[in-house]
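Limitations

Structures in this collection are predictions, not experimental determinations, and the ligand pose is part of the prediction. Treat each record accordingly. The example that follows, with hypoxanthine as the small molecule, is included so readers can see exactly what is and is not provided: the inputs are given verbatim, and the output is the predicted complex.
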Amino acid sequence: MRSSLLHSSLVQRINKSVHAIWQKTAFHPDIAIILGTGLGNLTKRVTKEVAVSYESIPGFPRSTVESHAGRLLFGMLGGKRVVVMDGRFHYYEGYTLEQVTFPVRVLRKLGAKILIVSNAAGALDLTYKKGDLVLIEDHINLMGINPLIGPNDEQLGVRFPDMSEPYSKRLMAVAEKSAHERRIPLKRGVYLAVSGPNLETRAEYRFMRKLGADLVGMSTVPEVIVGVHAGFEILGLSVVTDLCDPDHLKPVNIEEIIRTATEAGPKLDQLVESVVHKLPHVR
Ligand code: HPA
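Predicted complex:
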């Protein structure tokens, strides 16, 4: 039996979430921002804010970790109407990719047209340094799974989404201009996504480098695939938290990764705020 006969359809669940959010706030965001590990301080720059906890939104995944509750924060940033996803869901936590990407569908249905995604990533390009900011210019999906597998609902997007420009050249140009003006060094690179949760072997890092990747991480790509499917214009930014040098590999220290991301956070926050400020008013 088709699952839609047993459960409500994805479109119905998205609509239900959106209506529940509209009960709490009449705010209509133009730009959606997903914050990566250690990068939550951007929320402090949002003004006139209204927070809606994930647990109060029907259809949102239930957080497996108590301390990682999560909320949508609606408000103003750089003179624009934004919604910030403070806390994301990862595949390695045991969520399905439909759960991981459900919030992206909701953000789009709330009216946002631009999606800014950030993450903490390992550097395969050894010219990068810890704390560097990198503009994601393209990606490689090595998660071994795709969030669009299953019946396609044409109301949400096409069966075979084009991936010739998942990361908007227009937004990349705005980000580079903002970075230049603020004297924030900004590299460019290709982000490769794995499922995690283990870090990679030296052989895997060599393999990924040969594939043409500059960064590796455990998030972002499912959200970007669904973002493209849903019609978002997307900007991706990574913070380099560790160097994936196969010839000098040290045991990974997760606390250090989080600390490095947190330390680079203010630079990323400044850049995101400046990009948002530069964007023309959407409506
Ligand atoms: N590998 C995978 N994911 C990561 C890494 C890494 O080296 N650093 C931060 N996220």
